[in-house]
Backbone:
């Protein structure tokens, strides 16, 4: 049930681009993306709904391919503040209630 | 401040003991979720409540239990604690039952010695 993220870790220089992938073996209704800085709570970035909709947030965008059961998070011209662990979450609807299952995370390090 | 309040922030206790973690959801949110995050691990879903009722269960141990009260705050009870229970416990809330972004609290760091 747990989605699989790749890569597990990325190290970039400031200004470089990164792509984080998330795939699931189950049909997806939506994909969530969160960022967690060390010792802090995960922070919601965006939700993507089925239909291949692409969303953006500043220089962070994401796509969702429902047929492939995959989502990708794109970080463009990365900033130092982008460092952290990124989690994708896929939701399972059980008895009408959403249950969000998270991937194992991708640790992103941005160096000056 | 995310609007989700968790107390206490830190808890150190001995094996075999029982503790209670508390969560107040963001104003207007009816769903509360509990997650466990062990060192360098992902977020493991424990349990969900909606408007006072249990709605979904994850990999929650029998030694753990939770409830949501009429004022919508929730408590996670952990008993017969073991060293392996040491982790960050997060509470999150959302408005309803389905597709919605979660707002996480700052977590309770539990250390079992």
Residues:
């Amino acid at each position: 049930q747990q989605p699989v993220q790749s890569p597990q870790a990325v190290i970039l220089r400031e200004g470089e681009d990164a792509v984080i992938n998330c795939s699931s073996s189950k049909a997806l209704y939506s994909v969530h993306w969160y960022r967690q800085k060390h010792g802090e709570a995960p922070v919601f970035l965006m939700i993507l709904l089925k239909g291949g909709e692409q969303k953006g947030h500043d220089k962070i965008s994401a796509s969702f391919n429902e047929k492939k059961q995959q989502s990708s998070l794109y970080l463009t011209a990365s900033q130092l503040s982008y460092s952290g662990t990124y989690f994708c979450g896929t939701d399972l609807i059980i008895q009408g209630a959403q249950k969000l299952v998270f991937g194992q995370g991708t640790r992103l390090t941005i160096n000056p | 401040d995310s609007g989700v309040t968790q107390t206490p922030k830190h808890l150190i206790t001995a094996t075999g003991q029982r503790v209670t973690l508390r969560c107040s959801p963001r104003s207007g949110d009816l769903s509360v979720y509990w997650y466990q995050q062990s060192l360098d691990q992902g977020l493991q879903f424990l349990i969900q409540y909606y408007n006072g009722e249990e709605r979904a269960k994850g990999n929650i141990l029998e030694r753990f239990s939770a409830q949501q009260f009429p004022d919508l705050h929730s408590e996670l009870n952990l008993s017969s604690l073991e060293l392996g229970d040491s982790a960050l416990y997060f509470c999150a809330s959302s408005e309803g039952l389905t597709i919605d972004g979660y707002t996480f609290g700052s977590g309770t760091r539990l250390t079992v010695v």
Q: What stands out?
A: The two ends of chain A are 37 Å apart (CA to CA). Chain A has a mean pLDDT of 88. The interface with chain B takes residues 2, 29-30, 32, 34, 40-44, 46-47, 49, 87, 89, 91, 93-105 of chain A (CB under 8 Å). Residues 62 and 73 of chain A are 4 Å apart (CA to CA).
